[in-house]
Write a structure and sequence with these properties.
By secondary structure, the chain is an alpha+beta fold. It folds into two domains: 76 residues; 66 residues, no CATH class. It contains three helices and six strands. Strand 5 and strand 6 form a beta hairpin. The mean pLDDT is 86.
């Protein structure tokens, strides 16, 4: 995770050695050459540290994102326990709250397709003019199911 640190430390160690050798020089040209070498080494160390900090920041953001996703999945796992798969019409299934009592027509119904994908999408009921049929539509996955009547809940 901190692969950049040994490289930066090595660069700074080299910079220290260059600085020590500069103290022994009396020739201005050689001293100037060593100053340039020292500056390049320090810049290299700074670049390695900045690169490492950027990587660390990116990894930290990814960890936070994964933690949020983990919490969302845990909450969804708890939430999904509140719903049962029920046949609301002949061959038509929806997720309905476990404690629901009453007519399936007035029940809060969730789309089974979206539910399995971890989404809580409410099915909207509509009347179909032809043949006095009913339909339920999921506006999330755009599925529509047409049927004649609801099954009475026993």
């Amino acid at each position: 995770m901190f692969e950049y640190l040994p490289q930066a430390i090595t660069s700074l160690s080299v910079a220290s050695n260059i600085a020590k050798s500069m103290l022994e020089l009396r020739d201005f040209a050689q001293l100037n050459s060593k100053v340039i070498e020292l500056q390049q080494t320090i810049i290299s160390a700074q670049q390695q540290i900045l690169s490492g900090q950027t990587e660390q920041s990116s990894l930290s953001a990814k960890i936070q994102e994964l933690e949020r996703e983990c919490i969302r999945l845990q909450e969804w796992s708890t939430e999904r326990e509140n719903y049962d798969l029920k046949e609301i019409a002949s061959g038509v299934f929806a997720r309905i709250e476990k404690n629901f009592l009453g007519s399936f027509q007035s029940a809060h119904k969730l789309c089974t397709t979206c539910f399995e994908k971890g989404k809580k999408s409410i099915l909207q009921q509509q009347s179909v003019e032809i043949g006095r049929k009913l339909s339920i539509t999921c506006h999330c996955c755009n599925s529509t199911i047409v049927f004649r009547h609801y099954i009475d809940q026993s």
